[in-house]
User: Which sequence fits this backbone?
C-alpha cells in the first residue's frame, strides 16, 4: 500500500513512540490515517512534529 491511493493520502502514526511515517508500517503500534489532499497530510505532520513527533 503506497502513501497515495486513489486520491487518498496516507500516513502511519505511532502514538506511544510519537513517530509519523510516510511509508506503510506493518507493526500493530502504527495506525493508518487518510487525508483528502497531500497539503492536509503535510500540515498534519508539521503540527505533530512541532509537538515532539519524529518522522520515520
Assistant:
Amino acid at each position: 500500500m503506497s502513501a497515495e491511493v486513489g486520491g487518498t493520502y496516507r500516513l502511519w502514526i505511532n502514538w506511544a513512540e510519537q513517530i509519523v511515517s510516510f511509508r506503510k508500517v506493518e507493526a500493530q503500534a502504527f495506525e493508518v490515517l487518510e487525508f483528502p489532499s497531500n497539503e492536509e497530510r503535510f500540515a498534519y505532520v508539521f503540527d505533530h512534529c512541532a509537538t515532539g513527533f519524529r518522522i520515520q
